[in-house]
Design brief:
Elements lengths: L1 H8 L2 H8 L6 H26 L15 H21 L1 H5 L2 H22 L4 H7 L2 H26 L1
Length: 157
């Protein structure tokens, strides 16, 4: 598996993003990943906080119109994250913090999906209690923090 990751990191596609001296290489990839995170995490956290009772003047059902934009952010992050991972797959695949990040994202997205499914169902929200949004918020905090650590984890090890 690691040899496959090495081969992918040596493709022309990966080398372009690693070595291009244009803004359209690695810098653009990082910006797309950051914007995807802003959209996904920002809207997800807004839904979680509203579910917990913050901004109670805004109807929960009104947040539903932002859900497709939030999933667009997930798509941007998945695509840009996959490309970033492919630049040095061996390194990222062997970083414990990367697996913590991916696990936290999975938990946060699962919590968000359950909350989104209940946006129009007051009984579902009441039954879910506060555990689901708090778990999602904690998972996003872990995911974002672990994502930042991946930039510095290799030299530390």
């Amino acid at each position: 598996m690691l040899s496959l990751l090495d081969a992918i990191s040596e493709t022309g596609f990966a080398i372009f993003f690693k070595e291009a001296t244009t803004i359209w290489g690695y810098p653009t990839l990082l910006v797309v990943h950051a914007y995807g995170m802003i959209i996904l995490v920002g809207l997800s956290v807004a839904i979680m906080l509203r579910t917990l009772g913050y901004a109670s003047g805004m109807p929960l059902a009104g947040l539903r119109k932002y859900v497709p934009i939030m999933w667009l952010g997930l798509g941007l992050n998945a695509l840009s994250g996959l490309i970033l991972f492919s630049l040095d797959g061996r390194l990222f695949a062997t970083m414990p913090v990367m697996w913590i990040k991916l696990s936290a994202i999975a938990v946060a997205v699962a919590c968000t999906r359950r909350l989104v499914a209940g946006l129009n169902k007051p009984a579902t929200r009441a039954a879910a209690g506060k555990g689901l949004p708090y778990t999602g918020l904690l998972a996003w905090m872990v995911a974002v923090s672990a994502g930042r650590v991946t930039a510095y984890d290799a030299p530390i090890q």
